[in-house]
Amino acid sequence: MATNRTFTMIKPDAFAEGNSGAILKMIEEAGFKIVAMKATQLTGEMAGKFYAVHAERPFYADLCAYMSSGPIIAAILEKDNAVEDFRKLIGATNPADAAEGTIRKIFAKSIEANAVHGSDSDENATIEGNFYFSEIERVG
Ligand code: CMP
Q1: For ligand 1, what atom is nearest to the CA of residue 118?
Q2: Each residue of 33-58: pLDDT tens digit?
């Protein structure tokens, strides 16, 4: 069933460079409402769990090390057609392929340090949001 929520992380590169505010501004100006949000830091083990779907990929170990290398912001976002619209707003995984004006085009450094994560399906948006937030931590 389609939902109107997605999940995002502002990754360690963007957080460390002080781009979180600018990225959140773009997200809100695109019409997304913040339903839950926290600054936190993953352990390597927790990053491994979050990205378990990529466990067989050659970049998995580097990705887990990178994602646990510094603080991040995790958030649940609400909007009609949230998953698809958010992926448009952030642009392609590899910033070299991202469209002009997208968050990754503006802020990402590389395919790994690509500034933000966005869920790729409604099902994963729910799983990923539940990974970070209990019911009591959400606005709605
Ligand atoms: P994200 O949308 O968070 O989902 C998986 C992440 O793996 C992706 O963004 C990238 O940051 C990272 N990654 C690193 N190397 C690759 C690669 N070659 N292909 C896809 N994703 C990669």
Answers
A1: 2
A2: 999 999 999 999 999 999 999 999 99
